Amino acid sequence: MATIRYKSKQLAMRALKQYIMPILAGVLFIWLWQQQIFHKLFNIRLHQLPLPSRIWDTFKDNIELLLSYTRYTMTEALIGMLIGSLIGFGVATIATAWPKWGSGGLLLIAALNAVPIIALAPIMNLWFSDGLGSRIAVVTVTTMAAMAFNAHKGLNSVDPNALDLMHSYGSSSFQVFRYLRLTNSLPYVFTALKINATASMIGAIVSEFFFSSGGLGYLLSNSIKVAKMSMGWACILMAAVAGVIFYMVIEKAEKWSVKWHSSQRNML
Amino acid sequence: MNPAGIEVKNVSMSYQSESSEVLAVKEVSLSIGKGEFVSLLGPSGCGKTTLLRMMADLLTPTNGSIEIAGQSTRQARLSQKYGIVFQNPTLYDWRKVKDNITLPLELKKVPKAERERKALELLELVGLEKFKDKYPWQLSGGMQQRIAIARALAMEPEILLMDEPFSALDEFSRERLNEELLAIWKKTNSTVVFVTHSISESVFLSDRVFVLSPHPGRLSAVVDITLPRPRTKEMRNSPEFYKLITQIRDSFEGS
Amino acid sequence: MKRIKDRLLPSLAWLFSLLVIWQLVSWYLLEVKETTLAQSKVPYIHEVVHTLFTYGLTLLQEGWSTFINAGAGLLLGTAVGAILAILMSLSTWAEKTVFPYVILSQMIPVLGLAPIIYGIVHDENWSRVIIAAYITFFPVSLNMLKGIRSVSPGSLELMHSYAANRWSIYWKLLLPNGLPGLFNGLKIAAPLAVTAAILVEMMGARHGIGVIMLRNLYYGPSNTYMFWSTVVASALLGIANYLLVQLIERIVTPWQPAFRTKGGDN
Predict the structure, then answer these.
(1) Chain B partners of C264 at a C-beta cutoff of 8 Å?
(2) What's the fold here for domain A47-265?
(3) Which of A76, A89, A176, B210 has the smallest number of Cβ neighbours within 10 A?
(4) pLDDT, tens digit, for every residue of B5-35?
(5) Do B84 and C158 touch (CB under 8 A)?
(6) How far, in Å, CA of C187 to CA of A145, rounded?
(7) What is the ipTM of this complex?
(8) What does the DSSP assignment read for A9-71?
(9) What is the pLDDT of residues C100-151, one digit of tens each?
(10) pTM, to two decimals
């Protein structure tokens, strides 16, 4: 009896730490914000940093507009990420098949990755005019590198013994690729997809700041220009929600498809 | 009554596993004299490592008591009465070889010049002076373990606790290090408690072998090793050596 | 020497062939197809390089302003991130409270906050520093905490056997163990910090590479080479920042497996 009570107390403690503390901290933060404590502390005016209640009202009142712009931004992010990830994986495959020349391609992608998104936006705007295409192109470029590097790691970190085994079966290098490297790369591909989920949204939103007629980034930067700060915050809120959902969807897909992988196995 | 030795009195240790209580060590009593070299020998699950870790105050016995040089294990740890060598060298990757050896001295605020002098002395003892400015990963497994021994000796402890220190090494390195360990022991006059699952290793090194048997871990025999000192390579082939090995093996069969 | 050559040669071949293709496309658009804004879309490389050198000093000055602010933000963010990681490793309460938000930050487009922060701070230098720091501290604290947590039980036991106090355990074991993680976080943040700084500049600062980039874009085709120069300069800035982080990593943590040279006699 005593041990049972002890255990339930332990469980309660754990729940307290796990969920209640972070929620409490979040609520406290928003409360301090709402009570204008931050405003007084850092000498910020209300029109610079609107109150949470105000942001929430704006969010509710404009939910239709926000949702339609989210759809617009997510379309860019998703398509761009798909193309970018495909190209990245392609480069990784080439670099695996022909290491000497392929690794040069990887290096090139690394250099391309260093170009700030913000410089890519105007270029893509020149190339693809100001439709969806230009932002998709920006997202494509920003998501290529993470996939190329992670997939390359996954395709090449194969257990040497497994390679020897395949060799002893007399398998062709295509078979090795199909049965060994591809499955081995799966967890790495998902790591890249998770990085790219966030990166693609950043790419889409940031390139909408300057050259767009729609999307969350467009609404965000335009609202700020005309000092409608609460609308800007509503956009951020919407982008955060969309980002979390996007990330979670990929995480679910990962759990479902790489059950065999050790990092998952140990968790169970 | 046992000034630099170890007294283990009626020690038991049990773990709380998910479903039941597991008795890892059951009522073990033994006495180790000053300057003695003893082995704790047994198959996995016999509690030999648990026993050593209790001596080192890394675990606390559920019952019974352990005294080291007349002190409690906690006092002995705080006053650095012992040095310990683990199965893995456990060297810190970011420290050069000599800095790994001086780590315990640093923790005790020994001045730098004194530390450097001691490091050189110890490196000479384990025959690795040349490697003082290398990083651990630049050394072979056997060399790394020698560094770990040097580190354990840095505080000039009266007692050296060794937990299967050579079990990860190949047979050739292991035999060579056995001989080196005996040479170091002779120079330092320390008491050594050596955990191993190799019968021949325990016979070659020890004055006495404590044989432990599993489920639950308990002391099943104490074997005096009558081989003369200094031990030499050739002794490994002597009939007496084989006789002792057979005797220990039989004590397992009996239990 | 030969290994370096073997690695460098393919990369150089790639680079060279790409430059040639670019140059050919540029010529084709301008002379054969006669596209409008041909040079704005795909400019001649030699013209861009020429501009890059002609206005080198200006670009360097403006680039420096961007670089310094991004760098300061990177430092500030690293400090905050490291302190947070240590705090989380010290107290499970702190960890449970803060960690979910650190994870959450990995899922949301934090760079989107840049214009908002600029709206609040309204000082171009400070907003660049704050945004760069804000972007840096999440990956740094996350990766450093992972590093501190990944310490082997044996290493901790060794410290315990020496009766080491908490301060020594942190200073001599946990922090060195967390350093590689700190640098991993920094390498993720380095290019983003530059992007963030340029973003603020484009929102209406007076100095920085972003300012001349936007200005030359709006001036139209006549300034196209200057625009492309700023693009090249900002890319170089991103690469420089990354390489700087990598260099510091090599100096501070030479023991990491990736930097190990074959040595010792086995």
Answers:
(1) 131, 134, 137-140, 143
(2) MetI-like fold (1.10.3720)
(3) A176
(4) 899 999 999 888 777 788 888 999 999 999 9
(5) yes
(6) 14
(7) 0.83
(8) HHHHHHHIIIIIHHHHHHHHHHHHHHTTHHHHHHT--TTTS--HHHHHHHHHHTHHHHHHHHH
(9) 888 888 777 878 888 888 878 878 888 889 988 988 888 899 889 988 988 9
(10) 0.82
